[in-house]
Amino acid sequence: MTPLDPNLEHVETCWRLRSREQANRVLECAIYATAIGLELRAGYGSDDLLKSQAFVDGANVESADRRARAVAQRWLKQLIATPEFEQLPTWGPQDSAPARSSGSK
């Protein structure tokens, strides 16, 4: 997910989920650094932000980071409790299409 605001710096991707009904739609949650702290963002891309929460802790960035990760995990638990999504890796290729088997004989 690329943020619209050029002042946001991607810190880490917390999780990625693919819609089971629309395999080309990937919901991503990531932490971004802002001028005032951290921002947790979840959405289907920069133009489809669904949820956002700021974490401001002044000099204590570790505390903001820890709280942002905890909220990201809460959001994830709420979503995977429904059958609508499957979890994707946050590392490696960020392809949203379902993996296809090579069909070796």
Tell me what you see in this structure.
The chain is an alpha+beta fold. Helix content is about 20%, strand content about 35%. The protein is built from 1 helix and 5 strands; from the N terminus they run ββββαβ. It has one helix spanning about 60-80, and strands spanning about 10-20, 25-35, 40-45, 50-55, 85-90. A 5-stranded antiparallel beta sheet has the order 4-3-2-1-5, covered by helices on one side. It is globular.
Strand order of the largest sheet: 4-3-2-1-5
Query: Largest sheet at a glance?
Result: 5 strands, antiparallel
Distance between the termini: 38 Å
Instruction: Report the portion of residues in β strands.
Output: 25-35%
Bulk shape: globular
Poorly predicted ranges (pLDDT <50, ≥5 residues)? 96-105
Number of strands: 5
Give, in order, the helices and strands: EEEEHE
Separate helix tally: 1
What is the average of the pLDDT values?
Answer: 81
Summed up, the domain count is: 1
Q: Estimate percent helicity.
A: 10-25%
Structural class, by secondary structure, is: alpha+beta
In short:
With 105 residues, the protein is of the alpha+beta class. The protein is 19% helix and 34% strand.
Helix and strand topology:
Layout: E1 9-19, E2 26-33, E3 38-43, E4 49-55, H1 61-80, E5 85-88
Antiparallel strand pairs: 1-2, 1-5, 2-3, 3-4
